[in-house]
Amino acid sequence: MTIGITNTDSRYENYPFWIAGNNPAITVIQLTPLNEGELVKCHGIILSGGIDTHPRFYNNELLDYPNAPIVFNEARDEFELKVFHYALETKLPVLAICRGMQLVNIALGGDLIQDIEAAGKNDHRRQEDVDGMHDIRVVENSLLHEITCDYEGIINSAHHQALGAVAPELAVNAWSVDGIAEGAEWKDKAGKPFMLCVQWHPERLAILQPENPFTKNIRKKFLEAVNIGSQEI
Fold it and tell me: Which of 42, 98, 169, 197 is catalytic?
């Protein structure tokens, strides 16, 4: 099976290490605008974390907000939106991580809280290059609960933005104690490919807590979805 992972300047190497490991049956393609044609080889897509999406993609004109990047990467934004819509059209399984979750919400018509501390929420950022850790509550009867078999868990945290208005097609599947959406999935899954969005970084959580179901079980379920899809091609 072949998994496409969108490129990021923020610790990209963790993603293929986590999802493929030493499994020779898994091929990873690092997706960039320069190799867009290789999308046709992919059986599943991971939308990676990284720099804030430019506000124009969610109809917001405010660029000078707290913790905003000095320079946005609009070429990446445009490319990843294209990748996501390609995945929908071809029914590829999608795992969207951190920025990836926010991008999915934008692509489907939602918007973002531009800085969660400015909005009165707790600090969810990395501190001295170390992820934060905090509790989440999982929504009953959600796909995330089905995957993890838990109604609560401990996850890592490294973001300053979050979902604002949730896209009509999405449902939040987990919340932080201070009311930040920590995960999302299809509201109506009928006829749609597998998709799980998480605000944390399971590819880094695995380094510290490899048995944590909020990394281990997510990897397993995504690979199962990709494998099923690849066998159908």
Answer: 98
